[in-house]
Amino acid sequence: MKFVKRVSMLLAIVLTTSVFMFFSPSSSVNATTNGHTRQQAYDWAVSLIGRQVDYDGGPYEQPYQCVDPIYSYVAYLGHPELVAGNAIDFENKTLPSGWAYKENPDVGDIVVWGPGVNMGHYNDGVRKDNEYANSTYGHIGIVIGVRSSTIVTIEQNTHFNGQICAPCERQLGTALIYIDPFGDGDSVPRGTVEKCEMQNGKLFIGGWAYDPNEPSKSIRIDVYSGNTSLKSITANVYREDVNKARGISGNHGFNALIDIPSGNHNIIIYAINSAGGSKNNKGLGAFSINNSGSSTPTDSLPVGDYTYCEIREGKPFVGGWAYDPDESSKSIAVDIYVNGTMLKGIPADVYREDVNKAKGITGNHGFQAYLDLAPGTYSIELWAINSANNGT
Fold first, then answer.
1. Do 219 and 311 sit in the same domain of this protein?
2. DSSP E strand boundaries for 56-189
3. What is the CATH number of the domain that holds 91?
4. Same-domain pairing of 137 and 251
5. Disulfide-capable partner of 224 in 74, 187, 268, 286 (CB 3.0 to 4.6 Å)?
6. Could you give the number of structural domains in the chain?
7. Is 274 a member of any domain?
8. What torsion, rounded to 10 degrees, do the Cα atoms 190, 195, 197, 200 define?
9. Rounded Cα–Cα distance for residues 69 and 54 (Å)
10. SS (H, E, C) 118-150
11. Of the residues 291, 322, 352, the one at which a domain ends
């Protein structure tokens, strides 16, 4: 698989001093936020800057954790019943009426990162360093601004700011989920695809999904090849493991064998919101599938994309993810070519929680590298190498 992007290096480096810019939110109010608006939530969050928050204050609790300001925030919004657990536990809460899980952030949302994910450390849209969520408990913050490729948050207990509340700028797309206290209460479905592969000449898919607004109800799963609808099925298979892990009841598993034409397919699987329509549906994953017309396992092309191809600290920087569907838990190599000549190969061995969750896979599949190049204009090509090392 090949990704090409042209990078122009600047001949001169201009140093600038920048500060965080906060954003004016809408004045929307929800009856289940203790009468507070997004604007008031924004003002409250900003007022934490420079403070240490220890909500529980108990003798057996670790003080000034990342979750302490969130405890204070949900109590401020009138819901102290949410005060429990670690950061990652907010990914699976029974939310108050009117609150919702969603994938796109807004001011006043709670943002949850999965364990070990690289959130990025930015200043005014410029990536300065890496910063990782706790490898066991994840990380959490309050959104106070949204930019084109980053979000601005208030967080406590971070690597660069220590155990005080401070503004941080993080990469969009790294969060596990957002919690919106001020929306319409319509959550996106939750779920994952555990298998998407050819079996005996047919496409087999399997996984689970449910709608947090109606967690005992079985929802629809739509399967597409590109823009062509292949089949709609219902996630109505009993999955005791899912029910136990998510604290829900009902039938939420799905599996199906689907006839597809011979050739290459970009299979996309959606979980459909129980309310129906096109709003707040969830893309569970996209998969490159080759139907060779036989039952013999196929040698799939690697799947991936670049997240960055830009100038950082005066050097070209590339980053993204890639994996081989035939060995989806294995890290593969990515070869970097400059103007048609191989510069170097790097492993895609950085943990990417967002990729694993979106694709329903495990392992380490992220990559990133600085390139030592003289000033000039270059064509940079990234090739994901098949795990069998016999193709790209």
1. no
2. 100-102, 110-113, 121-123, 126-129, 139-146, 150-155, 166-171, 177-180
3. 3.90.1720.10
4. no
5. 268
6. 3
7. yes
8. -120
9. 8
10. ECCEEECCEEEECCECECCCEEEEEEEEECCCE
11. 291
Q: What is the dihedral of CA 382, 385, 390, 392, to 10 degrees?
A: -40
Neighbour tally for 98: CB within 10 Å: 16
Q: Has residue 157 been placed in a domain?
A: yes
Predicted confidence at residue 66, as pLDDT, reads 95
278 Cβ neighbours under 8 A, 6+ residues apart: none
- Tell me if 21 is assigned to some domain: no
* 295 pLDDT higher than 50: no
* Mean pLDDT estimate for the chain: 84
Q: Write down the pLDDT at residue 25.
A: 54
For tokens 């298998």, name the residue. 195
Q: Is 391 among the domain residues? A: no
| Pairing relationship of beta strands 177-180 and 139-146 according to DSSP bridges | unpaired
- Shared domain for 116 and 63, answered yes or no, is yes
Residues 114 and 196 in one domain: no
∠ CA(252), CA(258), CA(260), 5° rounding?
145
How far apart are alpha carbons 26 and 262 in whole angstroms? 50
Q: Which two tokens stand for residue 252?
A: 């939420």
- Say whether 103 sits in a helix, a strand or coil: coil
Instruction: Write the single-letter amino acid at 166.
Output: A
Phi, psi of 313 (to 5 degrees): 50, 40
CATH number for 275? 2.60.40.10
User: What CA–CA distances, in Å, run from 368 to 170, 317, 343, 348, 385?
Assistant: 17, 7, 14, 8, 15
Q: How far apart are CA 376 and CA 65, in angstroms?
A: 46
pLDDT in tens, 138-189: 999 999 999 988 999 999 999 888 899 999 999 998 998 999 999 777 888 9
Domain that holds residue 221: 190-291
pLDDT digit string, tens, across residues 229-242: 999 999 999 999 88
Read off the pLDDT of each residue in 53-63 and give the average, rounded to a whole number: 72
Q: Taking a C-beta distance cutoff of 8 angstroms, is the pair 365, 321 a contact?
A: yes
Q: Are residues 92 and 196 in the same domain?
A: no
The tokens describing 78, both together, are 């009138």
Q: Put residue 181 in one of left, alpha, beta given phi > 0 → left and psi -120 to 50 → alpha.
A: alpha
